[in-house]
Design goal:
six-stranded parallel beta sheet, 184 residues, mainly beta
Length: 184
């Protein structure tokens, strides 16, 4: 009887233990997309130092205020995103930090976007310590935004934007949906 009570107690304690957040160090785009597919609150994806060529980064998920989903550089300033690349985030409580976008351009209308698509806006999310430098479309008359802010309660801080040579605004707060109007 004592043994059954102990087994029941152990099952209750260990069965109710929350999942442990994971840290994923990724070295290539295939590893990134595998890690990003199953992220959960508290998970951290770390991009290995080096140059990431032609990389359209998409990250969406449901983080929390206490356990955001984080995308970060292994060493800030040593993860360079170049070529035809961009970053789009959606969902709740996503944090991106330490990336450098250099010598390339976005294949879409924005380099950094607080939405994955029109239906998946980012809320309560942050992009910080990001560099975008000389990341302009080859045709100076082709328009894009470097940063498009959608959703609610998002933060873009401690970043460096320089060297835009093509048509279009550098930073735009987009109020084109009901979800974006009361944006904090």
């Amino acid at each position: 009887m004592f043994r059954r009570v102990c087994l029941f107690f152990a099952a209750c304690v260990f069965g109710s233990t929350p999942a442990i957040a994971e840290e994923h160090l990724v070295s290539n785009q295939a590893e990134y997309f595998t890690a990003a597919k199953d992220v959960e609150a508290g998970d951290v994806i770390v991009l290995a130092n080096g140059t990431w060529q032609d990389f359209e980064i998409v990250l969406t998920g449901a983080g929390t205020a206490e356990k955001p989903i984080t995308l970060t550089a292994e060493t800030p300033g040593k993860v360079v995103i170049s070529g035809q690349s961009n970053l789009r985030i959606g969902g709740e409580y996503i944090v991106v930090t330490g990336l450098t976008f250099l010598n390339g351009f976005s294949p879409t209308g924005e380099v950094l976007s607080f939405r994955r698509n029109k239906q998946d806006l980012a809320n309560n999310s942050r992009m910080t310590e990001i560099v975008v430098d000389v990341f302009s479309k080859p045709d100076r008359y082709e328009s894009d935004y470097w940063v498009g802010v959608y959703g609610r309660n998002n933060r873009f801080d401690h970043n460096f934007l320089a060297g835009k040579t093509n048509k279009g605004v550098t930073f735009a707060v987009r109020l084109d949906s009901e979800e974006s109007r009361e944006n904090g």
